[in-house]
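quick q for whoever's on today - can somebody do inverse folding on this one?? i tried earlier but teh output was garbage lol. C-alpha cells:
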C-alpha cells in the first residue's frame, strides 16, 4: 500500500539506492578514467538534478493543472503526489457534499411562502427568494441599491435603523398590492448583515380589524341605553317616597350600571387607541402642572382610603405626547395603587430621568402581586384576583390601556412587585419623547405629600 508507513520507508530506500547507484556509477567511470572524485561528484549532481526535476514537475502540476493527472514521479515524490491527490479527492467530496446541502437549503428557502432577503452591512440586498419578488417587489439588479431605496416606506426605514425594535417586528401596509398587509422581521447576523423575513398577514389583520370594529361598535351602541338606564335609576333612586323594599335593589342596579359604564368607556378608549394606530402624538406636556393635576385627582379618590400620597418631581424634562392619553395612563396606575393598598398605606408618585430615559413611577406598599401574574397583567380582563378587583370596581382593562398608551408614545411599562410588600409600576419614556422645560415655565424640582 502506497500510503503506509512501511511504503514510505521503501520510497526513501528506493531514493537511497538510486543515489548510491548513481554515485557508484560516477565513481566507477571516474576511476576508470583516472578522475574518481570527479566521477563521484557527477553521480551526486545527477541525483540532485533528478530531484530538482521532480520538484519542478510537481510545482508545475500543482500550480497550473491540479485537475489533470499528476506527473509520473519516482521515489518519495510519488508518495507526495499520491497524498496530494488523496487530499484533492476528499476536498472535492466535501465540496460536493456542501454544494448539495447549499442547493437543498436554497431550494427549500425558495419554496417558502415567506419572503427571505439577505442584506449585507452596506444595506445592499445580496440574495432573495422568489417570494421576496412577489411580496416586496424586489427585481433582478436590485443588488446594487440600498434596501431603503427599494422599500421606500418611512416606517420600514425607522424600523430598519432601530435594532432594539427588531424583536417586535413591523406590521406594514403592502406597497406592492393595495389592501394587503405584511409583517416584517429583521435579524442581525455575521458582521452587521441582516436577514429580512416578511409574510402576508392580511387575513389576520382583517380578522383583528373585525374584532376591533365589533368591540368598538358594541361599546358605542351600549352607551346610549346605559345612559338612559342610569339616568332613570338615579331619578327613581333619589325619590324620598321609594318603597324601602326596593331601595337595595335600586342601589345595586345603580352600582352595576356604573360599572358597565366604566367598562364601556374603557373599551371605547382601548378601541380608539388601537384604531388610531401609531400616529405620532407630540403635544408639549409641561410635567409640573400636569403631575400636580394627577396628584390632586388622586387625593380626591384617596379620601376614603386615607393613604399618604407623595409626589416628587426630580426631573426638569417635559414630555412630548398626547396629554389626554398620558393622563389616562397615569391616573390608571395611581388609582390601582390606591385600590390595591390597604387603608393608611404609603404611595409615592415620582417623575425622574437618568439623562437618557424619563420615568414616571408609582410605588405603593400594598398587597403586591405574585411574580407569575406579572407578565400577564397588561392583558385585557386579566385580574390577579377577580373577586377583589370587582369589589374595588375594576374593569380589568386599566393596565391594557396603560400599555397601549405607552406603546403609542414609544414607551413601555416596567412592573416590579413583591407579594405582601408592594409594587412599583414605572412608565419608561425614551429620550426622543423628552424635552427640556420651555423657558417661561421654569420648573422647580418639587416634592410634596398629603
Ligand atoms: P383592574 O381594573 O381590575 O384594576 P387593571 O388592568 O388595572 O385592572 O389591573 C389588572 C390587575 O393587576 C388587577 O386586577 C390587580 O389584581 C393587579 N394590580 C394592578 N395594580 C396593582 C397594584 N398597584 N398592586 C397590586 N395589584 C395590582
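ok took a stab at it. sequence:
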Amino acid at each position: 500500500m502506497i500510503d503506509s508507513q512501511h511504503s514510505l520507508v521503501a520510497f526513501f530506500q528506493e531514493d537511497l539506492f538510486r543515489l548510491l547507484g548513481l554515485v557508484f556509477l560516477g565513481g566507477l567511470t571516474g576511476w576508470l578514467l583516472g578522475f574518481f572524485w570527479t566521477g563521484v561528484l557527477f553521480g551526486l549532481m545527477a541525483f540532485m538534478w533528478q530531484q530538482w526535476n521532480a520538484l519542478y514537475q510537481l510545482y508545475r502540476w500543482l500550480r497550473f493543472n491540479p485537475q489533470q493527472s499528476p506527473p509520473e514521479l519516482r521515489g518519495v515524490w510519488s508518495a507526495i503526489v499520491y497524498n496530494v491527490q488523496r487530499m484533492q479527492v476528499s476536498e472535492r467530496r466535501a465540496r460536493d457534499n456542501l454544494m448539495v446541502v447549499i442547493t437543498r437549503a436554497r431550494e427549500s428557502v425558495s419554496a417558502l411562502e415567506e419572503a427571505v432577503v439577505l442584506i449585507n452591512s452596506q444595506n445592499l440586498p445580496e440574495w432573495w427568494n422568489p417570494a421576496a419578488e412577489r411580496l416586496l417587489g424586489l427585481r433582478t439588479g436590485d443588488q446594487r441599491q440600498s434596501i431603503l431605496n427599494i422599500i421606500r416606506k418611512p416606517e420600514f426605514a425607522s424600523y430598519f435603523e432601530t435594532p432594539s425594535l427588531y424583536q417586535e417586528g413591523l406590521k406594514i401596509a403592502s406597497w406592492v398590492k393595495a389592501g394587503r398587509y405584511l409583517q416584517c422581521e429583521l435579524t442581525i447576523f455575521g458582521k452587521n448583515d441582516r436577514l429580512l423575513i416578511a409574510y402576508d398577514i392580511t387575513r389576520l389583520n382583517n380578522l383583528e380589524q373585525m374584532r376591533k370594529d365589533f368591540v368598538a361598535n358594541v361599546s358605542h351602541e351600549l352607551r346610549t341605553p346605559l345612559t338612559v338606564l342610569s339616568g332613570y335609576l338615579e331619578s327613581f333612586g333619589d325619590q324620598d317616597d321609594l318603597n324601602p323594599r326596593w331601595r337595595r335593589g335600586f342601589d345595586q342596579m345603580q352600582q352595576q350600571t356604573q360599572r358597565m359604564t366604566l367598562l364601556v368607556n374603557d373599551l371605547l378608549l382601548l378601541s380608539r387607541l388601537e384604531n388610531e394606530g401609531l400616529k405620532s402624538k407630540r403635544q408639549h406636556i409641561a410635567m409640573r402642572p400636569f403631575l400636580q393635576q394627577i396628584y390632586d385627582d388622586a387625593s380626591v379618590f384617596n379620601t376614603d382610603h386615607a393613604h399618604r400620597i407623595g409626589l416628587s418631581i426630580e426631573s426638569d424634562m417635559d414630555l412630548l405626547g398626547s396629554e389626554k392619553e398620558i393622563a389616562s395612563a397615569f391616573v390608571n396606575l395611581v388609582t390601582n395603587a390606591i385600590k390595591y393598598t390597604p387603608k393608611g398605606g404609603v404611595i409615592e408618585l415620582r417623575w425622574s430621568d437618568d439623562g437618557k430615559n424619563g420615568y414616571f413611577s408609582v410605588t405603593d406598599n400594598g398587597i403586591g402581586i405574585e411574580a407569575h401574574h406579572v407578565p400577564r397583567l397588561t392583558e385585557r380582563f386579566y385580574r390577579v384576583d377577580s373577586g377583589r378587583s370587582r369589589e374595588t370596581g375594576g374593569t380589568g382593562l386599566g393596565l391594557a390601556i396603560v400599555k397601549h398608551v405607552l406603546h403609542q408614545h414609544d414607551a413601555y411599562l416596567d412592573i416590579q412587585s413583591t407579594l405582601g410588600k408592594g409594587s412599583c409600576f414605572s412608565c419608561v419614556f425614551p429620550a426622543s419623547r423628552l424635552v427640556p422645560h420651555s423657558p417661561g415655565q421654569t420648573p422647580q424640582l418639587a416634592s410634596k405629600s398629603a
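fwiw Residues 21 and 412 are 89 Å apart (CA to CA). also Confidence is low (pLDDT under 50) at residues 442-446. so keep that in mind when u check it
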